[in-house]
Amino acid sequence: NAEYMGKAGQLESCRNLCEMICVECGYPVNDVYREFSKGNIRLTRCDHCGKYADKYVEYELVIIFLDLILLKSQVYRHILFNQMPYQERGIDVNIIKTAIGAVVLDSYMKWYRVKSYYVQEPVALASLQGSTLPHDRWVYILFSSFVEFVVYLIGIVIATKVVTSITPKKIASESAEKETVFIKYNYLLMAVIVSFFGKLGALLMVIWDYHMIYRTLINLFVLLSNVTAVKTFLHTNSVRAGLIVLLALSLRVVVQLFFFAFDTSLLLTII
Fold this sequence. Notes:
Distance between the termini: 35 Å
Helix content: 40-55%
Number of helices: 10
Structural class: mainly alpha
Strand order of the largest sheet: 1-2
Shape: globular
Radius of gyration: 21 Å
Largest sheet: 2 strands, antiparallel
């Protein structure tokens, strides 16, 4: 990845000198391993921190997924900067597929909540007007989930601009002279989309019946993953990252309130 984007700002000279980054410290490296013969590789150590630049090269997919669950910053650097081809602009096609999956699973959890509520509350169901049951309007539920997802991503970008402008932080090497600070927003969005992997927990709701508290726990975990992704990419602290996610969530809640005002039968599902 031609630019060091693990930090919000970086020396422009790294653009053509470095291809990958160290997953431990985020410092640019030329490579993460060297292959001496077929099947015989040796991991490269980072010149900055002295640790292996990317330990995940030798890890199985299951271990990588477990580290995602454990909210480790290193695994986000591995996926975004050392696995995917560099994206000057736009979103990687695999990340787009992840986003589609997240929207579909989120809409399913909404549909499941609406259906469970009206099954348990027949009086509320009887009071509704119209021949179509709320949980039968799955196209509308899917559309609302899509809009909320897009607005949330837009909120992440806006909140990042606001927070970084209010609390500026120079992120560059001490030996460097005055450098331009920039943020690759397409990579910020890709990091956030990857952190929606927690929505996969909804697949269990397809197989077994769960109490709706399970849905809340999934969404809370996804928010924590979002904070980790923002924190990792911007190379900032948890407070600033949490503030960015909170502002984006607030914008998403506004959209949810709009949909709820338009059709109260589908319930309000903030988290």
